[in-house]
Amino acid sequence: MEQRNRTTVQEFILTSMTLTPYFRTILCIVFLTLYLFILLGNLSILTVVIMDRRLHIPMYLFLGNLSFLDILLTSTTVPKMINGLVMEDLEISFQGCMTQIHFFHLFGSTEAMLLTSMSYDRYVAICNPLRYNIIMGKSTCFLLICICWILSLFNSVSQTILTSQLPFCYSNHVSHFFCDIKPLLQLACTDTSFNEILFTIMTGLISVSTSTLIFLSYCFICTHILKIRSPKERRKAFSACTSHLTVVFLFYGPIISRFLRPATNDSMEQDRQTAVIYTIITPALNPVIYSLRNQEVKRSLKAIYIRFKVCRN
C-alpha cells in the first residue's frame, strides 16, 4: 500500500519565492544588481591575477581561485532565483535540483578549504618569511588547491547521490530559494536519519576543521606579530592579514550562527536568510575587500585600465 502511494517526483517547486508583485520586482532588481556586481568584481580580480605576471605568486593564485569560486557559487543559485522572480517560474526539474545541490556543496566546501590554505600562506609569509619561497612554491600552491577541490568533490558527490536516492512522495514544494539538502530531507517519505547524520558530520567536519586550522594559524601569527618591536613593521604585518581575516569572518559568520542557534519554528526562514548572505552578500563584498585593501591589486587594475584605454584610442 505504501509503495502504491509513492509517486516519482519529476520536479520541485521553490515556494519561498512566492511573493507579491511589488516585492518580487524589488528583489529581482536587488539580486540582479548584486549578481552583475559579483561577476564584474570577481572577473576583474581574476583577470588581474591572470594577466599580471607579478601576481603569479601563491597569495594571488589563491585569491584568483577564490574569485573564480565566488562566480561559480553565485551562478549556481542566483540565475534561477532571478528567473523565478521575473518569469514566476518557480519550478526546477529533479535532475536540475540534484545538479544544483552538487555544485552548491562543491563550491561552498572548496571555498572553506581554500580560505584555510590562504591562512596557512599568511602564516608562512609572516612567521617564516625567509623560507616563504621554498615552503610556498607554485607546486605547493597547486597541490593545496587540488586537495581542496578533490576533498570537496568527494563530499558533494556522496551527499548528492544519497539525496537523489530518497523517495519523495508527500510534496514537491521546497521551502527555500534554491535546492538544498535540508529542505529536501523534510519531503522524503522514508527514514532520513542516516542522511541527516551524514550531512551533519560532513558539514560539521568541514566547518570545524577548517575554522580550527584558520584559528590556529592566526594564533601563531598574532603571537609572532606581538614579538615585533617596530610599530611600523607590526602594522605592516597586521595589514597583510586584514583582507583575508575580514573575508573569513564574512564567510564563517553565517555558517557558525546557523549551527549555534537553537532549533525553532522559524529555523527554515533563518536558513533562507543565511543562504542569501552566504551566496550573494559575501561574494559581492570579497572583491571590494581585496581591491580596497590591496595595493598590488589596485595598481594592476589601474595598469590594465590604462592599457585598455590606450588600445581603444
From TrEMBL:
It comes from Hymenochirus boettgeri (Congo dwarf clawed frog). This is Olfactory receptor. InterPro entries: GPCR_Rhodpsn (IPR000276), GPCR_Rhodpsn_7TM (IPR017452), Olfact_rcpt (IPR000725), Olfactory_GPCR (IPR050516). Belongs to the G-protein coupled receptor 1 family. Signal peptide: none annotated. Residues 41-290 form the G-protein coupled receptors family 1 profile domain. The chain crosses the membrane at residues 22-48, 60-82, 141-162, 197-225, 237-255, 275-292. One of its GO terms (molecular function) is G protein-coupled receptor activity. It is a multi-pass membrane protein. The keyword Magnesium does not apply. Keywords: Cell membrane, G-protein coupled receptor, Membrane, Olfaction, Receptor, Sensory transduction, Transducer, Transmembrane, Transmembrane helix. It is found in: Cell membrane. GO terms for cellular component: plasma membrane. Pfam families: 7tm_4 (PF13853). PANTHER family: OLFACTORY RECEPTOR.
